[in-house]
Write a structure and sequence with these properties.
408 residues; alpha/beta; Rossmann fold; TIM Barrel; 2 domains; 8-stranded mixed beta barrel; 5-stranded parallel β-sheet; 14 helices; globular; binds ligand C2E; binds calcium ion
Length: 408
């Protein structure tokens, strides 16, 4: 069990059915969680929290409740700045549960999972143990917004470090490349994840410099790997804001040349995180990057950030299906439908498909059977420092034979 879910943590159950309280409380007790409080009405739960009646580490919330339903309760949790974990519970069909889960995550709540009623002890155990605090974050309070000048000093002062997460070919199990994921080595807060500073960098015009630094470090590392005989595609995330400057393709090509890395070793992952300010310029830039043989990948596919018209207009060579459609797709018909549709579309457009968020053997087996090209996710490797890649390669070589065998 993760170190965040301490057994002495206070847990709140919000459900209008008393027998559900009894059942869940007993199951939680069996897992060692004894400090459990129940409310039959969401309004009571809110009143309790607002009066300071308990710093809850975890809330189980039913979706169907008279008076205030679960969705509204979630909105209220955001309003009172609840920072603990949330588990959604529902007797309705899975899609409603999924929608509510998405909504809660969009509100930046820490959703551990969604459970169907009746909740089995095994489901409960899984949702609690699946949850591990994101690396570098010691508690929810660690999530804070940084001032733009502090961020600027970090970017220009060499405080950004690149982590790398391997991508492997599903058919052969061979490592095809790595994705560069930036972190900020903060003097007080430790390792800060990009979700906590990329948006600030974009809003304050620091993203070009950030990309420049990340790219230069990634290219330097790519050269070191090439010298060591490792031919890896190195992917770097770029923001749509980077695609505002017509100089960008030449700048990238020059950076690659300077590092001695063939442009075809480099992949740029593009998410439409904000509306394209200047669609024509972005098209121009993306087309010229392709002409320079730099790989282009469309990131977070399916989340609405990337649109179908981009696929039509831009010669992307890789499509990354967002992890929200990958993990668990084998068990969930709606996820599976979206995943398979994305895969089919990518094939017709002659693009490779990368599945991100591959978290367990089930995901892996499903993707192999579906004919997806490449996999990335915690099941294969977490993002790591460049110096740890060699050791991971050795461990992977041991695991690989079992993972690529044809299942009887
Ligand atoms: P992304 O491009 O979608 O990157 C994948 C994120 O999913 C990474 O989070 C990675 O650590 C995480 N991840 C990988 N495997 C799994 C898995 O199996 N399960 C789960 N639940 N998560 C997994 P990270 O490193 O926190 O990065 C978050 C986002 O920040 C990235 O999402 C990317 O959009 C952005 N980002 C990272 N580095 C840069 C950068 O240099 N420039 C820009 N513009 N954005 C960056
Ligand atoms: Ca990415
Ligand atoms: Ca993604």
């Amino acid at each position: 069990m993760s170190n965040m879910l301490k057994n002495n943590m206070k847990i709140l159950l919000v459900d209008d059915e008393p027998f559900v309280h009894k059942l869940l409380a007993r199951q939680l007790a069996n897992l060692g969680f004894n400090d459990v409080i129940s409310c039959e009405r969401a309004t009571d739960a809110l009143a309790l929290m607002e009066s300071g009646g308990g710093a809850f580490g975890l809330i189980f919330c039913d979706l169907q409740m008279p008076e205030m339903d679960g969705v509204e309760f979630v909105r209220q949790l955001v309003r009172i700045q609840y920072t603990g974990g949330l588990v959604l519970v529902s007797g309705e069909d899975g899609r409603i549960l999924q929608t509510a889960e998405k909504l809660s995550r969009a509100h930046q709540l820490d959703v551990l999972g969604a459970l169907h009623k009746p909740v089995s002890p095994e489901q409960l155990r899984q949702v609690l143990s699946n949850h591990s605090p994101r690396e570098g974050m010691t508690s929810h309070a660690a999530r804070k917004i940084y001032a733009s000048d502090e961020l600027w000093r970090a970017i220009t002062g060499g405080k950004l470090v690149n982590y790398y997460q391997p991508k492997v070919d599903l058919a052969s199990g061979m490592v095809s490349g790595v994705e560069t994921l930036v972190r900020w080595q903060h003097p007080q807060d430790g390792l800060v994840l990009p979700d906590q500073f990329i948006a600030t960098a974009e809003e304050h015009g620091h993203i070009d410099e950030l990309t420049r630094v990340v790219l230069a470090n990634a290219l330097r590392q790519a050269r070191i790997w090439l010298d060591a005989g490792l031919s890896l595609h190195v992917a770097v995330n770029v923001s749509m804001d980077n695609l505002d400057s017509l100089e960008f393709p030449d700048f990238v090509a020059r950076a690659a040349a300077k590092a001695g890395v063939p442009p075809s070793c480099l992949v740029l992952e593009v998410t439409e995180s904000r509306l394209m300010k200047n669609p024509l310029a972005s098209l121009d830039i993306l087309a010229r990057l392709r002409l320079k043989h730099i790989g282009l990948s469309i990131d977070d596919f399916g989340t609405g950030h990337s649109s179908l018209s981009q696929l039509r207009d831009i010669p992307f060579d890789e499509l990354k299906v967002d992890r929200s459609f990958v993990h668990g797709a084998s068990r969930d018909p709606s996820l599976r439908a979206i995943f398979e549709a994305s895969l089919g579309m990518a094939r017709k457009l002659d693009m490779k498909t990368v599945a991100e968020g591959v978290e367990d053997q089930e995901d892996w087996d499903f993707l192999r059977a579906a004919g997806c090209d490449t996999a990335q996710g915690y099941f294969i490797a977490k993002p790591m420092r460049a110096e740890d890649i060699g050791r991971w390669f050795e461990a992977w070589a041991e695991r690989r034979p079992d993972l690529v065998q044809v299942k009887a």
